[in-house]
Design goal:
Order of helices and strands: HHHHHH
Distance between the termini: 43 Å
Number of helices: 6
Structural class: mainly alpha
Radius of gyration: 18 Å
Number of strands: 0
Length: 177
């Protein structure tokens, strides 16, 4: 945010590319696991549901916290656009929450015996959404006004996310298939 829109866009594309990598690995890994052991689906659903409830807790906690949003440069100084793209990719690939989130996402959308096109539709759809969302974040949050607006709206946004994660987690834990 503090080094300009082009750097933010490059970082956003790195994050989206990391999400794409995680989604591919998760779809093929879960597909292979489900093909080899159908009972693994139950463990994945429980783990995914509990993780979604953990995200709900974190969202609700963030909604009630009172911290300021400040734009600051990432450690290590300024980089080229490719450097920011690489940094975004590394951030996404080394974030354990990304792996856990993809397990939760894929376990909701991918059922045992699902054809390959279902997994690929999830991968492509989420990759396109990731590009759009991360680019919107980069463009919007490269302006001080938007950072201020988000700072005021953050409790509501985090509350909505917490509610969504709670519903998704409970539905996943309660589902029978």
């Amino acid at each position: 945010m503090s080094v300009g829109r082009p750097s933010g866009i490059a970082l956003a594309m790195g994050l989206a590319t990391g999400s794409f990598t995680w989604s591919i690995m998760t779809v093929f890994g879960l597909s292979a696991t489900l093909a080899a052991d159908a009972s693994a689906l139950l463990a994945i659903k429980i783990f995914g549901g509990l993780y979604l409830l953990w995200l709900a807790y974190k969202s609700f906690r963030s909604a009630t916290s009172h911290h300021d949003m400040k734009a600051k440069e990432l450690a290590g100084g300024r980089h080229t656009p490719f450097g920011y793209l690489k940094r975004g990719y590394i951030i996404q690939m080394t974030n354990p929450k990304a792996a856990l989130a993809w397990i939760a996402i894929i376990s909701v959308g991918l059922k045992q015996g699902a054809p390959l096109w279902v997994g690929m539709a999830i991968v492509i759809g989420t990759f396109l959404l990731s590009i759009v969302i991360h680019l919107l974040y980069a463009v919007a949050f490269s302006t001080p006004a938007m950072v201020r607006i988000y700072g005021h709206a953050r409790p509501v946004i985090q509350g909505v996310l917490g509610t969504f994660f709670t519903i998704a987690g409970l539905r996943l834990l309660a589902s029978r298939s």
